[in-house]
Design goal:
The protein has about 80 residues and is mostly beta strands. It contains no helices and 6 strands. A 6-stranded antiparallel beta sheet has the order 1-2-3-4-5-6, with no helix packed on it.
């Protein structure tokens, strides 16, 4: 049974699609892809996630690459 959604469709009161959010996850349940499109199919957000884990499978680094703006955000975790 999946615990994380693969797709979320956001509709208005008239059932018109406002946006579609797509997700993909790695084997640890962390997102590796987030893509949001508007009701016409135009990409609004497209993020790719990369991770590093220690030997205990704890996240030590997360990098988010914004495909649309060509920017990266890196977060390092300390335990």
């Amino acid at each position: 049974m999946e615990k994380n959604p693969k797709k979320i469709v956001v509709k208005d009161k008239g059932q018109n699609i406002k946006s579609v959010q797509e997700y993909k996850y790695n084997e640890y349940g962390d997102p590796i892809l987030f893509k949001k499109t508007d009701g016409l199919g135009e990409t609004l957000i497209h993020w790719i996630y990369e991770y590093k884990y220690d030997e205990s499978k704890r996240k030590t680094m997360m990098k988010i690459s914004d495909i649309g703006t060509d920017k990266e955000t890196i977060m390092e975790y300390e335990y």
